[in-house]
Design goal:
There is one protein chain. This protein has 15 helices and 13 strands. It has helices at 2-32, 37-58, 64-78, 80-101, 121-132, 155-167, 180-196, 211-228, 245-253, 271-277, 300-310, 322-325, 370-373, 399-435, 461-470; strands at 204-208, 235-239, 256-260, 282-288, 314-318, 345-350, 363-367, 378-380, 388-390, 442-443, 452-455, 476-478, 489-492. Strands 1-7-6-5-4-2-3 form a seven-stranded mixed beta sheet, with helices on both faces. α6 (155-167) packs antiparallel against α14. InterPro entries: GrpII_AminoAcid_Decarb, PyrdxlP-dep_de-COase, PyrdxlP-dep_Trfase, PyrdxlP-dep_Trfase_major, PyrdxlP-dep_Trfase_small. Belongs to the group II decarboxylase family. Sphingosine-1-phosphate lyase subfamily.
């Protein structure tokens, strides 16, 4: 029978293995015959310790190449004349930076200590006027000449937010029993955001201080989930274009960030390369909607298929354009699904203080299910001061900001957001179309939202940025790797 034939074949291999083992035993014994027992034990201990050290040295969170490079430059800087030259250049750069950032007018100085007697109400306001004059150009948000720094609704909204913040200036959601109104507002902000991103009944989230904290919380949650699954060295698999907050998260939480290259033409993440990067240590996958450098939407649906196939959480970073893309369909600019409608998307970060028009210091981190948010929390049950628990990085949080965020969303309403989105997207599309008609410059990929990144293979694009600055336009300049794939560029949103 087939079974007996297989057993006979296995017996042959078994005999061969036993012969090799016997030969190995005789060789080892012959080589160790002249050694005393203490020598054999010592050699074994030294070899074992050396192997453990070598493994620890080679396989660390930071790559061997990176560590060698850092050590090389540390040694270089210890050479007297080299170290002095480098320090001289660093000091010069710091001085130049100080000069560029120092906008003090003649006769002005920094306050270095408390006044012996507090200033009056009118004196403080007079000081405030003086500080407002330090801007090199008259700041007029309604003109829309500042890119990526100010997301302004209108003067009526500003007055409303000042009033709302004043009413809740002393509130702190760390104490929901004392400030139940703020707790209710936060819950409603999260629920409204979950609804916008098509979250189900189990979707949930937290209000944070900004996009960076939202990203940090998602990474922390997935790191702890990976630990529970037995992963010792969690990795973040993300496009090279993702926000630097993921680098910060990896640094803070002892994770490894694996950058995935972009498609040279579309500037979207290379999904095949992302698939190849997935390993047993992968804690999360990341997409941007859109990403900051080029304003491109990553292929969320394709990456989500990988997330489902390998049972890995997928985070969509919509910090920049989250409160645009959720309204684009209704504004007449449909885009591919990117939110909780896509199976595999487990979390989304979106900044209410950008195109949500809330005051700076507010964002949301949303989860498709409460089981993921559980890993975000921190609880210290044995503290002598009582049980300490916080949902995010901060303990105490400004209730006034949460109240102002809530007020903004209620004030704008769906119709207000849709109208604003329609105007922004139509303007961005027109800018993209007109720039493509200009010789010597090009648009990166095919941006669909509010960011239009331009570069040039003909001249230094920073010259264009400087010229626009002289005309009152403040655009973001992006310093990327030089080469045919990553020219220097500027963008506006």
């Amino acid at each position: 029978s087939i079974g007996s034939v297989l057993l006979s074949a296995l017996e042959v291999y078994k005999e061969m293995v036993l012969l090799y083992l016997e030969e190995a035993r005789r060789q080892v014994n012959s080589h160790c015959a002249h050694l005393e027992p203490w020598q054999i034990i010592s050699a074994t201990v030294i070899t074992t310790l050396g192997t453990v050290w070598l493994k620890g040295f080679l396989f660390q969170q930071e790559s061997l190449a990176s560590r060698i490079k850092k050590q090389f430059f540390r040694l270089i800087r210890k050479i007297p004349f080299v170290g002095m030259a480098i320090q001289s250049q660093l000091n010069k750069a710091l001085d130049d930076m100080s000069v560029s950032l120092c906008t003090l007018k003649d006769g002005m100085s920094y306050t270095r200590k408390l006044p012996s007697k507090g200033l009056s109400h009118s004196q403080v306001l007079e000081k405030i006027k003086e500080y407002k004059t330090l801007s090199k150009s008259s700041f007029m948000p309604e003109k829309g000449c500042v890119s990526g720094a100010v997301y302004w609704g209108d003067e009526t909204l500003t007055k409303l937010l000042v009033k709302v913040y004043g009413d809740f200036a002393w509130s702190n959601p760390l104490h929901p029993d004392i400030f139940p109104g703020v707790r209710k507002m936060e819950a409603e902000v999260v629920r409204m955001a979950c609804t916008l991103f098509h979250g189900g009944p189990n979707s949930c989230g937290t209000v944070t201080s900004g996009g960076t904290e939202s990203i940090l919380m998602a990474c922390k949650a997935y790191r702890d989930l990976a630990y529970e699954r037995g992963v010792k060295y969690p990795e973040i698999i993300a496009p090279v274009s993702v926000h630097a907050a993921f680098d910060k998260a990896a640094h803070y939480f002892g994770m490894k960030l694996v950058h995935i290259p972009l498609d040279k033409k579309t500037m979207k993440v290379d999904v095949k390369a992302m698939k190849r990067a997935i390993s047993k240590n992968t804690a999360m996958l990341v997409c941007s909607a859109p990403q900051f450098p080029h304003g491109i939407l990553d292929p969320v649906e394709e990456v989500a298929k990988l997330a489902v196939r390998y049972n890995i959480p997928l985070h969509v970073d919509a910090c920049l354009g989250g409160f645009l893309i959720v309204f684009m369909d209704k504004a007449g600019y449909p885009i591919a699904p990117f939110d909780f409608r896509v199976k595999g998307v487990t979390s989304i970060s979106a900044d209410t203080h950008k195109y949500g028009y809330a005051p700076k210091g507010s964002s949301v981190i949303l989860y498709s299910d409460k089981k993921y948010r559980h890993y975000q929390y921190f609880v210290a049950p044995d503290w002598q001061g009582g049980i300490y628990a916080s949902p995010s990085v901060a303990g105490s949080r400004p209730g006034g900001i949460i109240a102002a965020c809530w007020a903004t969303m209620i004030y704008m309403g769906e119709n207000g957001y849709v109208d604003a989105t329609r105007k922004i997207i139509s303007t961005a599309r027109k800018i993209k179309t007109e720039i493509r008609k200009i010789k010597g410059v090009f648009v990166f990929g095919d941006p669909e939202v509010s960011v239009v990144a331009i570069g040039s293979d003909v001249f230094d694009i920073f010259r264009l940025s400087n010229a626009l600055t002289s005309k009152g336009w403040n655009l973001n300049t992006l310093h990327l790797r030089h080469g045919p794939i990553y020219p220097r560029q500027i963008h506006g949103d």
